[in-house]
Amino acid sequence: MRIVSKSDNLHNNTDTISVDNFIVTDEIKVSDRIFLSKSTVFDGLTYLICLRGSGKLKINYREITISANQVMIILPYHIVKKIEQSDEFCIAAIFLGNDFMTNMVNSINLVNAFHFSKNPVATFTEEQVKELMEFHMLILKRYKKLNSPYTMESVSTLIKAFMLEVSSLYRLNRSSLPNYMPSRHEKITEDFFRMLILNFKSQRTVKFYADKLCFTPKYLSSVIKKITGHTIQEWINELVILHAKTLLKTTDMTVLQISEELNFSNPSFFGRFFKQYTGRTPLKFKYAK
Question: b/e for 111-150, b at 16 or more Cβ within 10 A?
């Protein structure tokens, strides 16, 4: 768990951000050179509060804009990339790791997760955003008191309150959300991504996903290519590579353990696969500065 200041580079020149517990940022003036400039998978739940300006992000296949007084909620294992931004684009963020989320699951109305996936951006009033930022700043202030007893327990409780407040405001403002009605092909694509997120570690064939969704591989492939501009195999490989990079950079797992985690037959095959898509062996990537 850590705190990130205005001067920190969240991206750290890698393609992934893995969060064991949580990361809370100070107000960040987003640079064109950093922060989601490459495809990124957050291993957990992400809250972005836009304070000024605007930015356009691609979440999986959808391009979504976030502007001042809006909050974006990005669900775990979604592929995110920044497309464009205004010069004054400024955000505050909270990243919650899956381990942290496990302890919070009973505190959140998980029905909202479905609505977040449909409408990841909600518009709040200036007063509502101000209230959220008061939570946010209190979390930062409390976290900095590292020598105080029960600091992490206090921060966890505050983050829980923040999450509940966002969910509450989201429900109150739901009537103002755009009535996003996906087309048939978009619905198929959303179902594919849900299936991919659940199974990418063990299943890497088009046939598996087509069978699960009750389509022929040819039909499903044509739909995903039409909607996203990329093939099913490209999406599978991208998610596998991004997760492999996360494990290499943020854990002590060996190449053998990672190859087993991702269901490769042996480390050599995993190494060849990884080098094919990154230009480097897993170990060279792991120790690259």
Answer: ebeebbbebbbbbbeeebbeebeebbeebbebbeeeeeee
**225, 235, 287 from 267: Cα distances, Å:** 31, 22, 17
Mean pLDDT by 10 residues, the chain (289 residues): 35 37 70 63 82 91 91 84 89 78 49 64 92 90 77 84 85 62 84 88 95 96 90 90 84 93 94 93 88
Q: Where are the alpha helices (DSSP H) in the chain?
A: 98-104, 111-118, 126-143, 151-172, 184-199, 206-212, 217-228, 232-250, 255-261, 267-278, 282-287
Encoded amino acid at 125, one letter? T
pLDDT recorded at residue 11? 37
pLDDT value at residue 205: 95
- Mean pLDDT over each residue of the chain, to the nearest integer: 80
Give residue for tokens 């609505």: 115
Helix, strand or coil, per DSSP, at residue 129: helix
C-alpha distances in angstroms, 144 versus 3, 19, 67, 155?
8, 19, 29, 10
Angle at alpha carbon of residue 282, lines to 276 and 286, rounded to 5°: 135
How is residue 93 written in tokens? 């963020």
